[in-house]
Amino acid sequence: MKIFLVLAFIAVIAFAYAGEAAAAKEIVVAGSTTIQKRVLEPSHDAIEAATGIDLKVRGINSGRGFSELVAGKIVASVSSSPLTGLLEKAGLPDNGAYQEHIIIEDIIVPIVHKSNPVSKLTWQQLSDINTGKITNWKEVGGPDRKIIVVTSQPTAATRRVFQKKVMKKAPYIKGVREVKSTRQEVGLVLKFKGGIGAVSEGFVAMNPGKVKVVRTDRISRLSLII
Fold it and tell me: What is the distance between the alpha carbons of residues 199 and 183, in angstroms, rounded to a whole number?
């Protein structure tokens, strides 16, 4: 974890939630499992040393984290989905009651089993795979093997960004395997030779050798604290 990411988060938490930080030695935030695993948990000791705050993070996905913020259960949520989308989904007006602060830019990458010879896919091919138009790896230059699509829950930001940008909001293939966390998604792709998923590039970097990243055009999104 680069130190500027740690300092950026400290600055945001101190600026946006100074009152709560001053009154408590522990702050609980919830939301994106990507931000939890890639940014906050690796930075925990640095944040505590710099601020005296024991930052607790619950990875429950971006949508559920924002719901807990709205309900007053936490002082901040972490999200891989923009605030406008979260407000729209929650049926709330964009009246300035909630503010988003950028932590980092995150890249989403397609992942396959490490034995899969396919090394590059276009967005159209990725869309066709995830919607069920392409069902066998031989259709994109791979082995004669059924494709098993793995994705996160509908409320997860990674899934929503991928579905919006790459799939143009088309529905996933019927019978898609849905998981609750990035770790579980990587685990299923590791288990099934025909598996394919889409996760944070940072998470793959933190778990080298487990799965193979397939090259494609850049799929980016911002990691936020709200």
Answer: 9
Query: Are the C-beta atoms of residues 60 and 30 closer than 8 Å to each other?
Result: yes
Look at strands 76-79 and 177-179 and give their pairing: unpaired
Are residues 163 and 85 in contact, defined by beta-carbon separation less than 8 angstroms? no
Domain boundary among 48, 78, 105: 105
Instruction: Give per-residue pLDDT as tens, 150-198.
Output: 999 888 888 989 999 999 999 999 999 999 888 899 999 999 999 999 9
Closest CA to 98 of 121, 112, 117, 81: 81
CATH code of the domain covering residue 133? 3.40.190.10
- First-residue to last-residue Cα distance in the chain: 21
- Domain boundary, last residue among 105, 138, 158: 105
CA distance 110 to 158: 11
Question: How many domains does the structure of the chain reveal?
Answer: 2
